[in-house]
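Please go through the protein record below and explain what the tokens say about the fold. Record follows.
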Amino acid sequence: MFERAPVVVGAPFPARQLLRPIMYIMLNIRRRRWVAPLGLLAALGVHAACSPSPVGSGECATDADCRAGSVCLIDVKDDVSGEPRTFSYCTTACASDASCPRDRQCRDGSFARSPRQSLCVDRVRTCLAEDPSNGLDDDCDGTVDEDAVPAAEGCLDSAGCGGFVCTAPVDGATTVCGPSNPSAALPFAPCSAGADCDNDLCVAGLCSPMCRFGTDTCRGVQVEGRERRTECARHVAAEPRPEHNSCQIECSQERCPAGSTCVWRDVLGTLDDQHLFVCSELDAQLLPLGAACPSNSTEDDLKCQHGLCFGFTCTRRCGGPGADCSDVGPGFSCIETTLIYGLREFQASICRDLGGGS
């Protein structure tokens, strides 16, 4: 009997087109298959499901064609002209997008069954005329990336990378959407080198996804047995990489994990001079604590290892009144200070020489 149809992602469906998918569902109820007509489910206000990509137009006819633990999903997508095309493929249940392959997304998927269940569904919802390099079968012909269309460049995060991830290649001119390392750890997993991570970026011992400020890419992580928050900020790598943001452990009030240091960073892609303290490794090629620097500005902050130029000196955050600042220079004390960038003001305890300028 017809028990459920996983939900799919799509645009709102015009009422005049409801009849065709309804008839399609009735036909497939008799065939005992799970059906996910894009337009109808979108019209009903249901969200999408997730799964491995179809092989040709039909990988399975019933659940019996799939391996144990998988189900057969009938999926209806639009082609480039707006006409529906039917695909079937085996899929599995999921808890989040991380539970699915890169070319799938996790969506709430039970249509005629309780309790509701989320499934992995194909990311491609409309079959295109060409197949750009993004790790997806955009033209729905069963072959991935056969057209010679370059991968997208200048990404801030992986949202526009399809089945690829946003990367900042060593010695690269710009960020680029590229294939992920299939054997690498998931984002926020512990790491010791970039090769451990799907985007080749290991920051303060965590696989660090690249990010856009204001999105939900960054999340809480377990660090040394405690829950810590990660924030999106510029990452200054020891290797020569194109400028990029990544999710890094926030440290305005707490210590950083062993091997990393609390640094002051701006955020790429914002218009309001956003800054914050995050944990990162130091770049030995930048100016050390106590070195002379031109001014307290984003441009000159980036010349200092700790990301902060104040009073014409490379300095750092400190723990509050009485905290030791002797590593910055003689006469430096931990002082609550207002840092000004454009129209933004930030309060922070920093090491400063009260006889110095700003």
